[in-house]
Amino acid sequence: MHIPGHLAIALVQHRFPILSKDKNALKLLLLASLFPDLVDKSLGYGLRVMPNGRHYAHNIFSLVGSTAFITAVWGKESGYAWFAGYSGHLFADRSGLVPWFFPLQAYNFTKGRLSFDRAQLFKEMLFLLLAVIVYRLAPS
Ligand SMILES: [Zn+2]
Q: How far is the CA of 86 from the centre of ligand 1 (A)?
């Protein structure tokens, strides 16, 4: 999934009652929805530390560890928002390889490159537009 799809999912998640109480929840949801790609694509495609863009931040340990950190620093409500946004990203990526248990489990990381599927990007832009409209119309 590309950036618009991840952002659309985060917007929809913000309408869940448990996530709409905290005023910082939306910012954390949006940031967490992009965080795995920001980290892994920067390391994989920018710095070339890994052969592709899903490894250090696309696993259960990064999800739990970063959620524990956010909860310890900003509290339980923020931790819920971070967990929801982050896990939403990982589940949305599951059409491809998500190394859920990296580094404890070995994965065959094939060399990849940053690419965008135009048709998928267009669909996700429509999804984001729809999510923004619904978000704006729904009572908060
Ligand atoms: Zn991703």
A: 10
Distance 83 CA to ligand 1 centre (A): 15
CA 87 – CA 89 distance, rounded (Å): 5
Other Cβ atoms closer than 10 A to 52: 21
The burial of 94, by beta-carbon neighbours within 10 Å (0-12 exposed, 13-18 middle, 19 or more buried), is given as: exposed
Cα-to-centroid distance, 91 and ligand 1 (Å): 9
Task: Give the position of tokens 């869940």.
Answer: 16
The total number of structural domains in the chain stands at: 1
Segments forming the whole domain that contains residue 109:
3-137
Low-confidence ranges of the chain (pLDDT < 70): 140
Compute, in angstroms, the gap from residue 66 CA to the centroid of ligand 1. 15
Give CA–CA dist 54/130, Å, rounded.
28
Q: What angle do CA 72, 73, 74 make, to 5 degrees?
A: 105
Specify the pLDDT at position 139: 74
Helix (H) or strand (E) holding 64: helix 60-74
Read off the DSSP letter of residue 45.
Answer: I
